[in-house]
Amino acid sequence: MSTLENRIDQGTGRTPADIVLKNGRYFDLVTGEIVPSDIAICGDTIVGTGESYEGREEIDISGRIVVPGFIDTHLHIESSLVTPHEFDRCVLPYGVTTVICDPHEIANVLGAEGIRFFLESSERTIMDIRVQLSSCVPATHLETSGADLPIEALLPFRHHPKVIGLAEFMNFPGVIHKDPICMAKLEAFQDGHIDGHSPLLSGRDLNGYLSARIRTDHECTNVPEAMEKIRKGMHILVREGSVSKDLHALMPILTERLSPFLALCTDDRNPLDIAEEGHLDYMIRTAIAHGVDPLAVYRAASISAARAFGLRDRGLVAPGWRADLVVVDSLESCKAQMVFAAGRRVTDALFATREAVAPVGLDSVKARIVKAADFGVPVTEGETPVMGVLPGKIITEYRRFRLPSNGNQTTVDLDRDIIKVAVIERHGKNGNHANGFVQGFGLKKGAIASTVGHDSHNICVVGVSEDDMALAANRLGEINGGFVVVEDGKVTGEIALPVAGLMSLEPFEVVRDTLHDLRKAAYALGTTLQEPFLQVAFLPLPVIPHLKISDKGMVDVDKFCLIG
User: Fold this and answer.
1) pTM reported for the whole predicted model
2) Under DSSP, is residue 368 helix (H, G, I), strand (E, B) or coil?
3) 82 near 509, Cβ under 8 Å?
4) Where does 128-201 show beta strands of DSSP type E?
């Protein structure tokens, strides 16, 4: 039992420690030294370093190095396509002992019920899941979401022990122009952490945004943007997910000098990529392989992350600190050989002690049945707006082309890789349906459809054939959400995500293997994208060719390619 008295007795060596890691070394993130030392643990706390200890349980870690547990500072667990219960089991063995999540994906579908599901789950996982309360539900007035979370709906969760603060404030135009809804949320969290989301914002507009006491940002995609934000007091969360890949672009700022103002995050990463590459451990070894100082990146992965979000009990291998520890074979390879979460060694037996949480949102897909004719785009004079996919980015470009036609209908142009895209309202509110065109998927036939559609999570479908698009969209209703691939009138791949149309009820291993088969089905259509499904999921985000904010805090709606 980890009482104060026990911790002192075990730390001084008066009594044997609960656990001792023997004959190893630890990475001192203060000095950068690798220190030969036993590590003594009492309950959930480190109580001894730099000395030799005896323990009730002694584990020989000869030849290995102990580092603090990794902290993912911004992610949406829903984007892993598994529940928090399975995410815990999937990611913790890679050394990620703390995650700071924004459940705004499920919140945009189910509202407060989704947040309650995450908070209840966070109380039962081995990993420490901390929650930021979703600030932008709905994410935009331009699309129909399943829920609305005004400040009155957030306040009941304000003082939950797992809540850190207010999640990524995506509506930066609303902040700058003092939108009343935005102001009410910001006012309520002035004494807590407010997470940022301000891609490419700079100058006086950035100053105004930061004056709302917004402290972190995960949307930097280049060094000048990151440096301006660091100079203005922001903590930059370097992101490397399944779609958004900013690590290589931001490696120049991963230095010992700047590391106190940096952290790591994944934002959106699926189990297949985790199995093939890893999680934060992948970011760490990739950065080191490209010349980043190990001290800088390990600091960003732990102590700097903890300090940015007010988690003052973790991030160092030192007495009195939380025993979140990763035993690695070397700093360069960052392969977790053993993981401890709050002093508990992570094993299958430990995961078996958890209580399950009942799933929610199992009937959230309420879209109307569609037919091929619903995907028609009438011919118009001049050029047609086209969304341009940028591989490795969630942002898209606004493009215009003269497209071919058949009768009074505009058609796809496979020679220029331009196919159709549609968003279909699926929350049962108005049945809206919008069609457009997208360039960059590489599809030569068939269709891909998804109920994961950031951020309002309506159905998004891309395709060459209107018949296949209709079949794919309708199949999503039959399986209560997920991803579907259709080729020549036949479903060739699918994964059911019945929890709010976002997450599977299956173990992460099943999701991982299904995603592998699903990816093969998508590649058979000709796509050249590494992550075609998450790319489909991000297409509903607005396309803005030139970001100009009006005096009403809105962007020019005429510049959007597709409004669902």
Assistant:
1) 0.92
2) coil
3) no
4) 128-133, 163-169, 193-196
Among all chains, which residue has been given the structure tokens 């050989």?
337
Which long-range CB contacts under 8 A does 26-32 form with residues at least 24 apart?
26/65, 26/66, 26/67, 26/317, 27/65, 27/66, 27/67, 27/294, 27/298, 27/317, 27/331, 28/317, 29/68, 29/295, 29/298, 29/299, 29/302, 29/303, 29/315, 29/316, 29/317, 30/316, 32/256, 32/295
Return phi, psi of residue 158, to 5°.
Answer: -55, -40
499 forms beta bridges with: 503
Confirm if 104 and 130 have CB atoms less than 8 A apart. Answer: no
Is the confidence at residue 556, as pLDDT, over 50? no
Residue 229 CB burial class (10 angstroms; 0-12, 13-18, ≥19): buried
pLDDT band at 542 (very low <50, low <70, confident <90, very high): low
CA distances (Å), 533 to each of 98, 483, 487, 538, in order? 27, 7, 15, 9
Answer yes or no: is pLDDT of 152 > 80: yes
Q: Taking residues 303-331, report their average pLDDT.
A: 98
Average pLDDT, integer, range 89-98:
98
Contacts of 280 (CB under 8 A, 6+ apart): 70, 71, 72, 94, 95, 96, 264, 266, 301
**437: helix, strand or coil:** strand
Q: 């990816």: which residue's tokens?
A: 519
User: Region 498-512: what's the mean pLDDT?
Assistant: 97
Q: Please give the Cα distance from 284 to 296 (Å, whole number).
A: 10
Cα(375)–Cα(52) distance, rounded to whole angstroms?
71
Q: How far apart are the first and last CA of the chain?
A: 55
Look at residue 33 and tell me whether its pLDDT is greater than 80: yes
Whether cis (ω within 30° of 0) applies to the bond prior to 363 is no
Backbone angles phi, psi at 336, to 5 degrees: -70, 115
Q: How far apart are CA 29 and CA 318, in angstroms?
A: 10
Beta-strand pair 447-450/396-401 = unpaired
Distance (Å, whole) CA 312 – CA 306: 6
Hey, what amino acid is at 456? S
Q: Cα separation of 446 and 59, whole Å?
A: 55
- CA–CA gap between residue 144 and residue 458 (Å, rounded): 8
Q: What are phi and psi of 247, to 5 degrees?
A: -60, -50
Amino acid found at 481: G
361, 164, 269, 508 alpha-carbon torsion, rounded to 10°: -50
Distance between CA atoms of residues 473 and 422, nearest Å: 10
